[in-house]
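Homework help thread (please don't just give me the answer)

Our assignment gives two proteins as sequence + structure token strings and asks us to describe the second one. The first is just a warm-up. Here they are:
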Amino acid sequence: MRRRWAAIAAGTLVTSGCVLVAGPSRAAIGAPPTVLNAQNVSFRSASGSEIHAWFARGKVGAGAVLLLHGVGSNRTSMGGRAIFLHAMGFTVLAPDFQAHGESPGEHVTYGARESLDAAAAMKYLHATIPEERVGVIGISMGGAAALLGASPLAADAFVLESVYPTIRQAVDDRLDTWLGPLGGIARLFTPGLIAMFKSETGVTEAELQPIARIGEIHAPLLLITGTADPYTPIAEADSLFAHAPAPKLFWALCGAGHEDLYAYQASEYEQRVGGFLVEHLREEGRGKGEGGSGRPSSLFPLPIP
């Protein structure tokens, strides 16, 4: 029996290493949703990639939102958010990170090289619609990319969903989830997996510490997590939130895991996230909320798990 469990553990650890050192997640995207009335655009990134994106121009003065997808995904996963935000009048830019979708690249780097793509996308928005305030919605790796790099993005509002605090915690959590009772032992291999990742990509552990960077943001934050997320447990989300400066808000979706939180609770997501972005990206919205430093907010009462 012990040999059987050891074999399972060894196989899972090898799989974990292969997952951590992930190759490109490329896909043909095709035309954007008709209702979005978007165009396909591209721009260069310091990651070395030509970033492909959907760009949908909104109403003048309504603000803009940069949508940053998660690992192994692409801009199509942000389609629901793009559609509802554009219907509210926002200009929307949804790029494929390097090594994702139609953007070339060699390895997924969990926010390191992707932070350069996020910066290039923000530069594109500022150059194209310089009069607009810009917010960002970052999902998991996309949220990490918004914080990492030379500095966090120069955004006017942040919505960060399911973001890991450190890459070490992210690997530990996945080993715990995949191996169950053997997860504690498997954690001993986390440094080796991270070293393997560095040797393949050149990205160090120190470059993948969102919790060390979130204190540098200079804009209101809405941090969102699922209470049943095994990959970013709520205690880790709380820790990330604690390191962020005010004004900030925390929303925990009861029962949600590490999944598409918009799809999980679309109507409430549209109310809360849409309202948060209106408040901070439009003149008519600014000053209406309390802009508090915790939970709850009088504008959007947040459930405490």
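The one we have to describe:
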Amino acid sequence: MDITRARQIVMEFEGNPEPSEDDVFMYTEALGYLINETKNPEYMMRLGGFYYGEKHFELAEKYYLMADEYNYEPAASGLGYIYYYGRTGEKDYDKAFKYYSKSASLGNPQSEYKVADMYRNGYAVPKDFDRFASIVRGIWNRRQSDGYIQYLTPEIASRMGMIMEHDGKNKEAYDFYKLAKRSLIHRLKTDDFFGNFTIMAMLIDNIHRVHEVFPEEIGFYDLYVLLKTPSSWSIKLFGKEFIVTSAEEDGALIVSCDGKYYRSISDFIAGGTVDDMKLFRVADRIKSVSQVIT
């Protein structure tokens, strides 16, 4: 292998929607070779990011730390996430605040709102909702001139909704939560990173808390809330009807649809299929979701 061949392997893998185990092996080998030969932190971050997406968090931490030695901003952000969520063991809010702050100082709005979250929750710093709101509003006000902030609309708008809700402005909160939901539905068509589903589940909880969801407004992702109570729901898609049912079995909530069973609501939302189609990929094509009365 040489640098040219390694770069080709990396490019081909990252353009392959369904890589094989051999493809994964060659990809990690190629990135390892590029790291050793070039000492380029971008390759360290790519390999760490791959392992993070695969939930091999110890390996992600290893390569993020390696890239951070070169003061590579994305590595600081990545380390913030690892320590904030305790991906490699116990949560370490002091380390999280250190790395998020470093990344934010280098211009990353994603790390900015995570620093804001730490003020909202009182993690590693005194709880300060006003500081949280000030940071989030500052990011929101820059969205028109920053394409990356526009991409982060689900994250920023959901926090703007929290600010409105805190101020007792539930109508404004609902509008922000709905904006975040619409943007996230669009993102999920092409990006099934597990964190996007976590955000969606939170958004649906928020929407149902601040606003009565009428039958004609119910969509696929509302099942995050609706299936928490054992029940059956009809989904109409491409002229066909599919029944989704949640039921308690041995103290756990099991979801079934189209002859398949899922261990949880989250597993169903992220992995549910009908006619070999992932439901979340076509969420905006679902014509109706209605309760089946038995």
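TA reply:
I won't write it for you, but here's a hint about the kind of observation we're looking for: DSSP finds 14 helices and seven strands in the chain.
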